[in-house]
Amino acid sequence: MSRLADYFVVVGYDHEKERSGTSSGIIIQRFPDKDWPDTPFIEGIEWFCQPQGWALSSERQEPRFFVSVLTDIDANRHYCACLCFNETISITPSKPVDEQEEDALDGQTSPHNISLPTITHHSIMYAPKCLVLVSRLDYIETFRNCLGIIYTVYVESVPVPLENVVSNILGCIQVPPPGGPQVRFSIGAGDRQALQPPLAPTLPVTHTAVSLLFHQLGIRNALVLFCAVMTEQKILFQSRSYSRLTEACRALTALMYPFKYSHVYIPLLPAALVEVLSTPTPFVMGVHSSLKTDVSEMMDVIVADLDGGSLLVPDGVSLPLLPEPLLSSVTEALGLVLQPELGGADHAFPPTPPPRPAPPAMQDKEIRAVFMRAFAQLMQGYRSCLTIIRIHPKPVITFHKAAFLGERGLTDCDFTTRVLDCMFFTGFVSERGPPWRPCDHWDELYSNMADLQRAELADRTLVLQHVQDLAHQLYQNENPNQQPYVQKIL
């Protein structure tokens, strides 16, 4: 069992630093005050609460919700759910000191020494303030609901002690591990919520993020981006939406399953840290579109514009694609999932009603199923190239790269060669190499892939059926409880 959230933080505009000519955020309150022994507090969180920087505004903005992902020194991810809103402040500027001194000097030399009152201007400005929940768990909708309740209690003066609500979130709600039962709880504000852990701990949870990414970029651009992340390229997303940036990074790394992304991962890069883009290591990052001009001269960074649907691959970047015929089969399968009506578009007597795409949540899993099948085909026979050395108490597993490429006839395949050289492939071998270990959906798919391919060669209509069967398993992993629970949120 784990805590739902580790810290609750209130971050506001630093008016003291504003007087010195700089604008930044400052932690106003933090609960608990002391660090948890197993989860130290992450310093610098105020940068990620306002990625574009802290600034006063002359217009009130609607409350916004987004999630920043921070990675600690042990490569553990911490999800910082932020609800940002504006507070009204009164600005009372007076005449500058130098002007007052000039008035005083003029008054001394003037024959009529008249004392004039200091001219004062009153204006209303809006300062940003953020409510933040920091957690090691990835339950974004639950965080949105909890922060929304705290905001409502605070703004509308609901007769509920805020300290009780916060303490319930931090100390009273225990979340079971993947495979555990549904948790129904209340944070003490008359709410009624439910939280459902996924079934498998190894499968990524995407909801509709993958489907959204393909609708934003299209099949071809998304495939190129997938090949880029699999060959350890530098990838940068741009959007005017913080949530879209986080979801795009989540979707791209989820497509890598059964591999795990092991390089720099910053879905929301603050403007103050934009120089991090000059790092020589691979990364997946996201920046607000307002920083587009600041990153336009990156010669080795692949830039994906989520709002415009474009993908820019610099001329100096060598980007191999999936080998044929795998690339064609993946493209065809994605077409069946995303554009099912395309197959009968030229028919003289088209079917009625025409086939429609699956709902976004299921379409998301169908796209992931296509890529899982692609990896199962690409990695066929990899286990025969593993060598287990049992000299040490913990077995050492090595992978014979040359033997695998030779057996599969992929010696000249640049894409496969690069994938086998990647850092995350080493993690894949050490994690899935041992013969005695718990198996998951990908292991089952890998063992059955040869039989599925033989059946599909005889009947091509089985391709979509097999994709949908696997997608249903992925959907069941995220939604194991078929009985909907009606939540009550303020």
Number of helices: 15
CATH architecture annotation name of the largest domain: 3-Layer(aba) Sandwich
What is the CATH superfamily classification of the largest domain?
DENN domain, C-terminal lobe
Helices and strands: which structural class? alpha+beta
Beta content: 15-25%
- Poorly predicted spans: 107-122
| Total strands | 16
CATH fold naming of the largest domain: Rossmann fold
CATH class descriptor of the largest domain: Alpha Beta
Sequence of strands across the biggest β-sheet: 3-2-6-5-4
Radius of gyration from the CA trace? 27 Å
GO molecular function: guanyl-nucleotide exchange factor activity
Protein name: UDENN domain-containing protein
Domain UDENN: 6-439
Organism: Homalodisca liturata
Topology:
Blueprint: E1 2-3, E2 7-13, H1 15-19, E3 25-31, H2 45-49, E4 64-71, E5 77-91, H3 97-109, E6 123-135, H4 140-155, H5 162-172, E7 174-175, E8 183-185, E9 193-195, H6 209-217, H7 219-230, E10 234-239, H8 242-254, E11 264-266, E12 283-288, E13 301-305, E14 310-312, H9 326-338, H10 360-378, E15 386-389, E16 396-399, H11 401-408, H12 414-421, H13 423-432, H14 441-458, H15 462-478
Helix pairs in contact: 4-5, 6-7, 6-8, 6-10, 9-10, 10-14, 10-15, 14-15
